[in-house]
Each structure stands twice: as structure tokens, then as C-alpha cells.
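Self-study notes.
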Amino acid sequence: MELNVKLTKAHKLITLFYVLLPVPILAYMFFYGISFSTILIIFAFFAFFAAIHFFAALGARQGKKWGRLLSRIIGAFMLLGFPIGTAIGIYLLSCTESVWQSSNEVYS
């Protein structure tokens, strides 16, 4: 059973964004002869944030406390990215605050 559907979908969508966005950027850099180490650093940057959102989605879907905490931390940091990051951060924080479905409640 999937818990916290809205939050899980939001994290999955952001993960997809972090996976697909660097593809044209890295292709452009490769085509114009940017050094491989620079391309690797940019890829690692996007992969890091994609992994964080992936694990947050996994924890939220399972209703784990660490999933809620990780989502709150991500949401708080995203508040700094005005204006789009702020909107996403508010949404993530509102999803963790209002109706959190815990795995303990479902399986007990």
C-alpha cells in the first residue's frame, strides 16, 4: 500500500527533473569540448540531488519517520530558491505537516 501519495509523486517528479535536465546540458558541454572532469562534476551534482529526492520518495511512500524528516529538510532548503523553489518547498512542507500516513498506523 502506497502512503503519502502527493508527497511521493512530488519527490518522484523532482527526481525526474534532476535526471532529465542535465542530459542536454552535458550533451552541449561534450559537443563543445568542455573537459571531462567538469562534465563529471556537473553530473555528480545532479545525481546527488536526484538520489536525495529518490530516497525521500521511498521513505514517504513507506510512511517512515526518516522519509518525513528528509522531506522536511529538503523542503526547508528549497525555500531559499525563490520563486520556484519556494513554492515547491512550501508544498513539500505542507505535505509533511498536515496528513502524514505512518506505516505504524496502517499495519497495526
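Second protein, same conventions, sequence then structure:
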Amino acid sequence: MTAKDLYNNIQIHQLDTFVVALTKDTTSVFGSVTPQSNGIYKIEYTLSSVGIWRMDITIQINGLGSPLQILNSPFEVTLD
């Protein structure tokens, strides 16, 4: 995932805190988010069953304040 501002500039400071939650029916899984470099974050998760999952990503800008839903979230993830 690449962090960008409203003007599509890559956010290279790596200070933002992301939370990735995947849900299917009554099951929830949280992913781990690791900063890589130049605004890129690696998301890893393990799903427990096949099917369509909902992925919600929230951000705490600079790790402060209330979490905000990122643009276009939620996403759909399919495990075959």
C-alpha cells in the first residue's frame, strides 16, 4: 500500500498508523502493517476460510487523533 495525501503526493515520513481489519460473517482477522520505505507499507494477513472478505483500512495521521477510514475503503478480498 502506498500512502498519499489529498494531492496524490507520496507521504514518505512513515509516521502514519494503519489498521487493517478483514471480516467475513462473524469472523474478524487483523492484518499487520509494516512501513517499508518512501510511503510504502506492507500488509500481511492470514484468512481462515475461503470466500469473500471485507477489508477495512483506517489511518491515524502521524499516529495521533481518531482513526479515519481511507479513501475507497472497504475493499473486497476473495480467497479461492
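Instructor comment on the second fold: The chain has a mean pLDDT of 88.
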